[in-house]
What does this fold into?
Amino acid sequence: MSAPVISVESLTGRLSDQLLASADSGGCASSSCGSSTRPDDVDPAIWDKIKDHPCFSEEAHHYFARMHVAVAPACNVQCNYCNRKYDCANESRPGVVSEKLTPDQAVRKVIAVANEVPQLSVLGIAGPGDACYDWEKTKATFERVARQIPDVKLCVSTNGLALPDHVDELADMNVDHVTITINMVDPEVGAKIYPWIFHDHRRYVGIQAARILHERQMLGLEMLSARGILTKINSVMIPGVNDQHLIEVNKLVKQRGAFLHNVMPLISDPAHGTHYGLTGQRGPNAMEMKALQDRLEGGAKLMRHCRQCRADAVGLLGEDRGQEFTLDQIPSELTYDASKRETYRELVADERRDHLAARSEAIGMVKIASSGKSLLVAVATKGGGRVNEHFGHAKEFQVYEASPTGINFVGHRKVEQYCLGGWGENATLDGVIAALEGIDFVLCAKIGHCPKDQLADAGIRATDAYGHDYIETAIGAIYAAESGVPALTATA
Amino acid sequence: MAFKIIASQCTQCGACEFECPSGAIKFKGESYVVEPQKCTECEGAFETQQCASVCPVPKTCIPA
Ligand code: SF4
Ligand code: SF4
Ligand code: SF4
It folds into this structure.
């Protein structure tokens, strides 16, 4: 099975076509020219830090890939949604990993991936276990990688308990992205999520445990903010436990300088053997998630493109090539070859400038079309910010909302791949349609008559008319048509 | 004189490996195990056995 990445080759082909097209028009016809090397709503100083980080920038996630290495298995907190014992190759959830690595093995793996995956820009250490608690291994891995591949960004995810002890070292190692999982700011709520913590050579339980954790999390966050390190706060939304409380969490972390807030749905399944899985605590559905995220708008900026990757995920967000890079497939001697990454970066720089110009043009148009309507559009894409995946091949759809405020990414819907080996399964299609609840339009590179008709019966219009266009350009055209405004002519 | 880990109860959190002052705990194959020759029961280093005090599951790190 081929991995859904944009290859350097396909990008080159497409780019040369575009270069020809723009040469005809004098190269620079767009009114937003000049201001379009970053999205309009991002501060230039911050843009420099996030422009290659797929998790910190929604725009960057179309182009850049991350990888996680699991080097720090020891953990000082138990969460009711986590069970470090079971690892199943068929499931994806954060904290789950098939291979625990030593720092040396991890460095080998990073080099292997950097040689093969030109999109790689970020190395993260994100469990299972806690990167700041199991610090020696985290540090050894980062130091070795920084020596060999200096331009890979380093980031860690932590529960925050041991974070204050290592903020200075993180700053010294140029780690400029840290994710802290914060599920509560009230120890009463915390006691329902964390059965115990281990701190200062002692185990704590109940409210006392949650209070210590809370205080350490706030301290760590403040220390990071003071040093200009960007922070993302991950919160697991647990219906009936902390769903309403997350509004308070959002407010407090924003006050302490958090850059992004990422609310993720609880994943609970009895088969995972977690406390919540076994006690039947349910996770939120897609519409509940969106409702909460909408209520949080206006607080700390929300991240909506998180895919809850496995702790050993490799590739663009939404894909996982981890299985291609297990230790047994990596030679014991490896040298870093920067050529693929360098070529890719040069190509992307141009493609991106073009995309950003097209994006701001489409958004501007949607704003002036001002029909007052709002449309939810699901897009099948395999990266590069384009409508370029077949309906039947999509494992997820990226969801955008077009409204008088512009075109905004609002999340993604995971689906079971409908078409396998050329045949579509009807039962699977029903599942896909259910997952697309509330969606007005589906955009894809190709779709057959039959699924198209069935989607139409469910009130969802699907089209492949915008195949290979930029996502925003396609959405802008649809929005304009819906509002009875003449569509923009294609820019590239 | 050594401690051992009851594999069926261990959640594989890895905390004991990391806290053991003697480097006696390793992840082997499927589970964490104590190498009895290396385990000192933390004598001279800590008041209590670190594996037992860090372990979240009661009666999982016990005298062998
Ligand atoms: S789990 Fe979320 S934050 Fe972590 S790499 Fe995946 S998308 Fe980014
Ligand atoms: S008793 Fe002490 S020395 Fe022995 S395994 Fe446990 S932590 Fe290590
Ligand atoms: S601390 Fe306990 S549960 Fe954790 S790995 Fe060691 S024996 Fe297993």
User: Anything to note?
Assistant: The pocket of iron/sulfur cluster (ligand 3) is lined by residues B 5, 10-16, 32, 54-57, 60-61 (CB under 6 Å).
